[in-house]
Amino acid sequence: MMNTLRRPPWPLALIALLVSLLAVTPLIYIIFRAVSADPATWARLWSGQMPDLLWQTAVLLVGTIAFALVVGVGMAWLVERSDLPGRSLWRVLLALPLALPGYVAAITYIILLRRGGVVERLLIDYAGVARGEVPLPSLYNVGGAILIIGLVTYPYIYLPTAAALRSVDRSLEEAARMLGRSGWNAFRQITLPLVLPAVAGGALLVGLYVLSDFGTVAMLRYRTFTTAIYNQFTGQIDRSGAAILSVMLILLALPLLFGESWFSRRKRRLTSDTVWRPRQLVKLGRWRWLALTLTALVVLLALGLPLLVLGGLSIQGWLFPTEADRIWGINNEGILAFGFNSLLVATLAATFATTLALGPLYLAVRFPSRLSRIVLTLSRSPFALPGIIIGLAFVLLINRWAPFVYGTIFALIFAFVFRLLPQSLSTGESALRSVAPSLEEAARTMGVAPARVFWRVTLPVAAPGILASWVLVFITAMKELPTAILLRPPGFDTLPVRIWAAASESVHTQAAPPAFLLILLTTLLLLPLMHSQLGIDRAMQENL
Amino acid sequence: MTEALISVQNVVKRYGDVGAAVAGVSFDVPRGTIVALLGPSGCGKTTTLRLIAGLETPNSGAIWLEGRKVAGDGAWVPPEARRVGMVFQDGALFPHLTVAQNIAFPLNKRNGRGRVEELLDLVGMRGYGERYPHQLSGGQQQRVALARALAPEPSVVLLDEPFSRLDAALRVSLREDVRAIVKRTGATTIFVTHDQEEALSIADVVVVMFDGRAVQVGAPQEIYTRPATRAIATFVGEANLLPGVATGAVAESALGRVILATPQHGPVDIMVRPEAIELRAVREGRAQIERIRYFGHDQSLHLRLHGGGELDVRSLPRPDLRVGQEVDVFVRGVVVAYPSV
What we know:
The structure holds two protein chains of two kinds. By secondary structure, chain A is mainly alpha-helical. Chain A is built from 24 helices and no strands. In chain A, 75% of the residues lie in helices and 0% in strands. The longest helix of chain A has 34 residues, at 333-366. Chain B has helices spanning 45-53, 99-104, 112-122, 138-150, 168-185, 196-202, 220-225, 230-235, and strands at residues 4-14, 20-30, 34-38, 60-65, 68-72, 75-76, 84-87, 156-160, 188-193, 205-210, 213-218, 240-253, 256-272, 277-281, 287-294, 299-305, 310-315, 326-331, 336-339. In chain B, helix 3 (112-122) packs across helix 4 (138-150).
């Protein structure tokens, strides 16, 4: 009913305030750079690339959301509400592409469909098509980008929709039936409105992914804001221009951000957690096999092919190394070194981010006030920033204020921590909220001082949730590409950087071993979370 | 104030500007007694308990524990320094610790082991030390919570609706056990409840709270038989309120002449408990039986008075009392009267 003593201890308030002020620095700096830019730069960008960029981004955004909606909602319904064979297996497999970065999927399909690639060879050898006349679809257009980003983002819609379909109380639908609605009408009037916020929230997350994605569109040579910012910064060394484009991108992302948080609040209000019973499944009849084929196709395209192609190439390169393999040094110790670098950066960054997030979170959960709300919102603000902008902001900030840090591993980890902080905040919140205030109060009445209570009661009780949150943040860190490209120390390659380098040199097969190792690690880490108490459905929502 | 172990003086607690949850509560608790804070939900009884524990700070007023001022007029002792044990509504057992570790939580490492066994014995949970809270039933969890609260030998134990989550049969047996246990330890105990039967059956003193105020403080018998207001009368049990005219020690009403507990004059409402009425079946009496609800061990009768009004009566099941039967009505003992408004 009530809370503990209202006034937060000052060390806690101070820590939380410091974290939030640090977190908001990159955003403020980028805006400052954009506003203070030469008006001529603004004019040049407006009349030059801006209209084209807006159109390109909009088409990709709408197309990807539509594709992900069809796949995500369709699969969720099949798995939760129909008698699809093997539902419990599909339920897990369909969620796993979440661990797959878009650029890895892009690499896979580039390898498959390029001239001289696997598909062409198969067609020549077995279908008798003449060399040079093989009809290969091009991936370097908006269709390719939509398909590939859609394949890795549909879980953002699939997971919350499936969770909502599962949690809508069966008695609600039964009550509607008893009140004289037909089965379809009950679904339309009761279930659909209850599930819709989850679907819409997921769709907006897909939109945010599209806006912030850098690796996939860069590899598919599709121009969006993120690639334009990168080119502006690295190619033309136009920092003001890059800042202006960044601000435009942030403005585009804001409505999606607010929409998402609005829907997630609605979702909490609508679904009830009363007694749950397994529900009647829709009999698919003769559509059953078509449904099974479609489901298998989705899993094959989004998960199976990347694992097969990348795994196959990795093993091939390991067993029969070619000249290129030797030059790239990817086979033996090399790949392990990159893997180690990735693990090191991700472990440190995820740990720091999780720890830092505890300050603002504890303040917000236990001492709700206007101050704590502001602190939490400020700490979350890097969420509005795609990785490329965070990387850019840190490069600029470091060069200006601390040039001696530039190109060190500290700068890289520092930037990673800020990239991950918003995610730590949202996944860690449920962990802290799961600790009943009465537990802490009980400890206080037993003669334990507040700081020791946090250490002896709050932290141990919240530990499983915090661990799950750490793993999710760690996975994001493992996948992070743009921040790493901009801030890595010379010669310090992580797995994503290595994939990126191979792709930019157009030696895509050389990207296979690091990509395979990367998705192997992330997928294996994601698997145990599927059944964790935190609930992957909720936690993954911030896993951009 | 010297002999009172706990003293609450004019304590006020407001949340924001939505009125006061506790609006000036005062009462004293002598050493070794069991006190019930009884009231409907939202009356501020839990807040009062949390103020005593130190989990809330009062806006005004003062609280003394063992002659030491712990809150009010600038004084403030945090909960961890008050030597007060508390049992929460949900038990608040630490889920990551075993039963034994939970009980040992407030203890020093050195003398912990023997004390834990002793406490497990005390609450009848010997052999459960290695279990985790989620492996216990609700009643067992509350026993462990009590043991944990008693572990550091606090002079005061506070219980916040400790039985409200248990089913009826378990609740009765557990509250008897809890009374015996705290009596044995000699701890002064305050517990919060909205169940009047619970308050009356285990407390030495009952504090009735309405709307953030303590409206009556007294022994259970006094609260039940001499409630200070109509509202208290109907809250702590079933009550018949009938109009009458008082002339000194007696009053005339539809039940005939009744003897008043305190002399009064003029129009009054007299309060008669259903079980304080005796019935005799007659050919033509003061009332007629309209309805009978049979409970097995006793029955509840609804009567229409020929002098106007209705009357609820409790009686043992009797073959002569049937629906439609005319009865004469006698009131046992004295009755309480409230001036009519």
